[in-house]
Automatic annotation (TrEMBL):
The gene is c1s.2. Residues 12-132, 177-289 form the CUB domain. Residues 440-690 form the Peptidase S1 domain. This is Complement C1s subcomponent. GO terms for cellular component: blood microparticle.
Amino acid sequence: MMLRLSLPLILLSHSAYSMLLGWVESPGYPSGYLPHSSLNWSRCAPKGHTLSIRLIHLDLEDSHECENDAVKVYSNGNLISVLCGKREFEELQSTVNPLLLSSPGGCLSLHFYSDFSNTKRHTGFRGFYTVQDFDECEDDPENGCTQFCHNFIGGYHCSCRHGYYLDADKHTCTVSCSKDLSGLTRGDISSPSWPGSYAENANCEYTLSVAPNLQLELHFSGVFDLEQGHDGQCIDALRVETRTGTLGPFCGNTAPPSPLLTYSHNVKIRFTTDGYGTNKGFFFHFKTTDKLCPPVVTLHSTLAPEKSEYRQGQTVTVTCDQGYVVNIQGVQTLSTEYVTTCQVTGEWAPDNACELVDCGVPEIPEDDILYLVGTDTPHTKYGDQIQFNCSSKYYTLEGDDTYSCSASGEWVSGSGQSQIPKCTPVCGMHEKDISSIGRILGGQDANLGEIPWHLLIKEPSRGGASLINDRWAITAAHVVENLGDMQLVLYGGLVNAQTRDRFSDVVVLNSEKIIIHPGFSKETPLRGRIDFDNDIALIRFTSRVNLGPNLLPICLPEANRALVTNEQGTVSGWGKTETKRDPGKLQGASRMLKYAHIAVKSLDQCRDTPTIEGNQHVRFTDNMFCAGADGKDSCQKDSGGPFVTPYLSAGGPYYLAGIVSWGPPCEERKYKGYYTKVANYIDWIKETIDSEGNS
Ligand SMILES: *[C@@H]1O[C@H](CO)[C@@H](O)[C@H](O)[C@H]1NC(C)=O
Ligand SMILES: *[C@@H]1O[C@H](CO)[C@@H](O)[C@H](O)[C@H]1NC(C)=O
Ligand SMILES: [Ca+2]
Ligand SMILES: [Ca+2]
Ligand SMILES: [Ca+2]
């Protein structure tokens, strides 16, 4: 009994500030704890104090990793100790108790539990808990006092040596060194304690302010010695702050250039030091001179005449560097230079910036085939590059694909083009091979995609037309001469004229405008049509045609290209055909698109014109040629369709040499048809399309 009472007193004497607050012990102590008993205990230390548990007795059932009965101690919820078994007082005192300590102001909790059985009786545990002051000066290296630290119960405070005062942060000792020297036009400034070592943790601000037409200049003399790191960084630093920027930081043993021109009449000199070192500092004399203008008006430019400084009233020409242009009040201009004057304030006026030329994003209509490769927001500054491409393989890019932003603000291609390129439809090609030769009158059925430029006209009467780009088709004038106000409907991407467009890929094309060649003469009311000179017309569609493998344009021949006698070509159409069993007897219009290879005939053969229906004679003109082959010809209802060279399967590109125009009745089996000579109309076609706009 004596022993138990005296122990806490011995322990308490170790720390003068310790205060015993109470006891904690297992249920039933010291007679022994029951199975399934438990105890939860928790206390917190007041601010600036720590809490300790001191066990004086421990006797629990021992088990592997204390899994049966145990005492667990937590500091702020983190497990710091697990105990079981029997421990002697000395062992508790030397190895267990020193760990049972909270952080300053923190909490300890203790959890005791026993399982369902004990093989023999165990007395349990007993301990007391104390709070004691936390000695921040001794035990906390982060206490933050830059000079002296004083511990007291529940806290601590900092203090400073003579000559320093405690900063508002209550930890840093600093010196008062800031001075307002406004109005003085000359004087001296040095580091605090000059010529002795300067103070630690200094933050000195010297304010200089003189009349606006003057500038302050600093003349350094004597030792210059500010602490500098091994990496050259300033540990202690001198800075000269003006409205337009900061000179420095300066440090090390090399004084700033002397005199140091500030170009300013309002200057703050800032001197900052860290908590260590014994460097000497700096000394300078300040005075004023007339304000001069600096040799830089704005970045990215040069001045003429070139000087190191400029007097008040002097004018110079600012020339922006290559690729830069003048920005006036936020707006980029096209000019690269301007004249400016040095003001009494030492400032240049005007002082417009030279900024990098911006070519902007080139304008491309929204649904155009042309697009910019890469990002949606391309870089558009001087020297940046953009690349164009066509979004469909049925188009080719006409011109260069890569453009650079030039110094003049225009996009320019490698070959010097400044117009953006165009996507033009690939012409005269088909994706499918021609497998066998065939005929129209005596012709062969075309497969889908073999003659992708051939368009079908059903109303008002059956005829053909040829696609020449993604907005225009060409046909014979007489096919469309009596339309009036009717809108013409053409069908593309098909070979079977009876295909119902709702259930297939047939493309329906609506005419917006039909332009008949001005030289084509009107039908005479009595005699019907007897003059087929200039039998050519252009059809503009209401919208751009979606090109595909079965719908592609034919190329136009070179202007005035001459056709050679016996030159082979291919004519195609949905016109009348002969019956197989009874050649010479014509059927109605063909269901399938047919084609035949025929040859251009000589002028003599052509001049020998046949009569057309009604025994009428037709004039043969230089705007026509005639062609045919044994058993092969174009026929009624083929009108307006294409005659292309070379003949299909010879390999593209194919050119539209002729338009089916007129001929003797097919029943006469003369096998000679007349065609509009397209090469004679190239200029008219191009001019017409250009004046209507090709997009
Ligand atoms: C002690 O706390 C634990 C969990 O934290 C709980 O399971 C147990 O019932 C508590 N014991 C008492 C006596 O409150
Ligand atoms: C250009 O477009 C074609 C498809 O039209 C594509 O195959 C090609 O890769 C594109 N080129 C670039 C550089 O994006
Ligand atoms: Ca037990
Ligand atoms: Ca304290
Ligand atoms: Ca220092």
